[in-house]
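Progress narrative, Year 2. Work on Transposase from Hymenobacter artigasi advanced from sequence curation to structure prediction during this period.
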Amino acid sequence: MEKAPPTKRPRYDAAFRAEALRLASESRSTLAAARALNIDAKRIYAWQKAAQPPLPADPGEAAEVRALRAANKRLAQELEILKKAIAIFSHPPTL
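Result:
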């Protein structure tokens, strides 16, 4: 029985990674950005994790940083929702 030849994993340069991260942050989801770029979503999640600054060594500070990051993410999502609502309600009704 013959084995299939090993396939090379694609290498992505820094510019492509930066564009993928930008698209994921502007997109409705990381999964949607991965589909648009035709790459695995796990790869973008790994790039997002690597792009974050490391947590402090102190457990108390690390917990605080995690909480602040979660709050920041939630507030960014709320802001996007409000922007969309303003866009919807700013159009005059068509009769």
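The two ends are 70 Å apart (CA to CA). The CA atoms of residues 3 and 36 lie 32 Å apart.
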